[in-house]
Amino acid sequence: MSTHSGDVSNNDSSINNIDSWSSVTELEDIDFSRLPRPRNLNIERQGSYDEKSLTETQLGFSPHPPSRAENFFRALEHFDCIFSPSKRSEFTTPRSPFGQGPHPMVAEAWDSLRRTLVHFRGQPVGTIAALDNSDEKLNYDQVFVRDFVPSALAFLMNREPEIVKNFLLKTLRLQSWEKKIDRFQLGEGVMPASFKVLHDPVRNTETLIADFGESAIGRVAPIDSGFWWIILLRAYTKSTGDTSLSELPECQKGMRLILSLCLSEGFDTFPTLLCADGCSMIDRRMGVYGYPIEIQALFFMALRCALLLLKHDAEGKEFVERIVNRLHALSYHMRNYFWLDLKQLNDIYRYKTEEYSHTAVNKFNVMPDSLPEWVFDFMPVSGGYFLGNVGPSNMDFRWFCLGNCIAILSSLATPEQATKIMELIESRWHELVGEMPLKVCYPAIEGHEWRIVTGCDPKNTRWSYHNGGSWPVLLWLLTAACIKTGRPQLARRAIEVAEQRLSKDGWPEYYDGKLGRFIGKQARKYQTWSIAGYLVAKMMLEDPSHLGMISLEEDKQLKPVLKRSASF
Question: Which residues have CB under 8 Å from 148's CB, separation 6+?
Fold first, then answer.
């Protein structure tokens, strides 16, 4: 067993050095009494510290005029929907303030969610992936970083932030472990995909076991874990007004270590991150290697969150400058080359190939014959979306839910693009929502393409699991995107569809079929993020100001979309 030789922070840190990279017995807890007293922020919708642009934050520019979504929020404020730090969600009380009781599924969901809590040394530190005891546990009895996000948001919205704080600190300590797969050592900033608590009743000890990818299917490190950690840290800060956690030297260092991994210089000619297959929610071989939209959107959002959380001290200033430069390049690249609407589809259809010059229009040498037949009918006149992947001679035209929703919430999508994404979802409701929200990607790959792309994966057959399956957890992301774009009625419609079956079916992990009609053939029941995703969606509709935890306003200083032409 390898040992850890470094220290996660300076000597007076409240987080102690850890001597094992794969398991820890009698792990010392953080002395919470030594943490600085919380410093409360003045939480207001207008003028909030994290809704300012990069230039406004750094140079003092004036805020931009209110957008359509901002006007929507201001209208909601007249109906007593303002977030109150002293108020829990009405979904935990017997009656709603509007004269109607909460949906009966809500109480069941909260009860199920609380039964997934994992404790370490008497403190809740996360939620397990699923409560289903009908099948082999595999790794569903572990706390996954990405899976915990909707659970964390539910607890934050219900004014129970302590579990989120414990989770953030515990995973931060795990980041400091030495991480090896065979004889290769992973980067210092890699966050674990998951962890579990082992109880030894004989010795009366508890041990943490972390997985950084060495036990995962395909042995792929989770790129998204670090991004979700930063995003969740910002959500905690925004929700509680407590900046003392993010200002801890350990949290500042943890963010810098994550950023060092993805801002390092190399051979890349694009500002996007090059990824292996299976490094995110789609954790099996599904042809998402290269520059997948999910990772790029999470990368963009994590950069923006880190910019708000990093101190402007000697170490932080260097990263702030690098983040600003990367955000400008990344937003330009994504908004231009990943965006697809009817006009751009027609342009690609007419592309010339083998262009060799700085004035090339077809910059990635994409072959027009590679356009799939389905995309011509799928693209509505007024809609659009971010492509699944763009690289040399490659465009993945599949629609991916998580990446497009995060693009809206992070404001990677311009207001016009966000509107078009929502118009596409509404126009293609039958295909993307069907009988159970929401397709993780569309369409499914099948036949020879499925054999080549997935390696004949029996779990990712057509319209199943990651290959066009319907995932209820995505309901919270859809709801957040709907509220931000001023379309809460669309979210309500999706929630009502889910409420017809989700509880009766035992809160499955995913559904199969073109319309999501069938419980997934290998889906676990009582999947925690299916439960938490529903609760978060309901609570955001009840109090739309909760959206502020997970949404960032548009930064006007980022360069706008420029039209492709032979002149640039």
Answer: 126, 127, 167, 232
Peptide bond into 443 cis (omega under 30): yes
Helix (H, G, I), strand (E, B) or coil at 422: helix
Which residue type occupies 313?
D
Q: Round to whole Å and give the CA distance between 150 and 532.
A: 5
> How many residues would you count in the chain?
568
Distance separating alpha carbons of residues 177 and 441, to the nearest angstrom: 35
**In angstroms, rounded to a whole number, what is the distance separating the alpha carbons of residues 28 and 518?**
46
Measured CA to CA in angstroms, residue 168 lies from 37, 149, 171, 250, 464 at distances of 17, 11, 5, 11, 33
3-state secondary structure of 193: coil
Alpha-carbon span 277 to 269, nearest angstrom: 20
Q: Average pLDDT across each block of 10 residues of the chain; the chain has 568 residues. List them in order.
A: 38 36 38 44 38 40 46 44 40 40 89 97 96 76 96 98 98 88 86 93 91 81 95 98 97 97 90 92 92 98 98 91 96 97 96 86 92 97 97 95 98 98 98 98 97 95 98 98 98 98 98 98 96 98 97 79 42
Rounded to the nearest 5 degrees, what angle is found at the Cα of 158, between the Cα atoms of 42 and 551? 55
The Cα 295–Cα 272 span in angstroms is: 9
Tokens encoding 409 = 């919430």
> Cα–Cα distance between 474 and 477 in angstroms, integer?
5
The pTM for the full model equals: 0.83
Residue 474 and residue 420: Cα distance in Å, rounded? 19
Q: Are 541 and 158 in contact (CB under 8 A)?
A: no
Distance, CA of 568 to chain centre = 34
Report how far residue 444's alpha carbon sits from residue 464's, in angstroms, rounded to the nearest whole number: 8
* DSSP class of 242: B
Residues whose CB is less than 8 angstroms from the CB of residue 16 and which lie 6 or more positions away in sequence, other chains included: 28
Rounded Cα distance between 495 and 480, Å, is 12
Which residues make Cβ contacts (< 8 Å) with residue 100, sequence separation at least 6? none
- 3-state DSSP assignment of residue 124: strand
Q: Rounded to the nearest 5°, which phi and psi values hold at 444?
A: -75, 150
Bridge partners, residue 40, by sequence: 242
HEC-encoded secondary structure of 92-111: HCCCCCCCCCCCHHHHHHHH
Residue 172 and residue 126 in contact, taking contact as beta carbons nearer than 8 Å: no
- Taking each helix axis from N to C terminus, what angle separates 314-333 and 249-263, rounded to the nearest 10 degrees? 40
Cα torsion angle, 392, 396, 397, 402, sign: negative
Give 312: exposed, middle or buried? Use CB within 10 Å, 0-12, 13-18, 19+.
exposed
Helix 401-409 × helix 475-484 angle, to 10°: 40
Helix (H), strand (E), coil (C) string for 325-351: HHHHHHHHHHHHHHEEEHHHHHHHHCC
d(CA 364, CA 522): 38
Rounded distance, CA 99 to CA 522, Å?
A: 41
Distance of alpha carbon 133 from alpha carbon 312, whole angstroms? 49
Rounded Cα distance between 516 and 469, Å, is 7
Contacts of 547 (CB under 8 A, 6+ apart): 480, 483, 484, 540
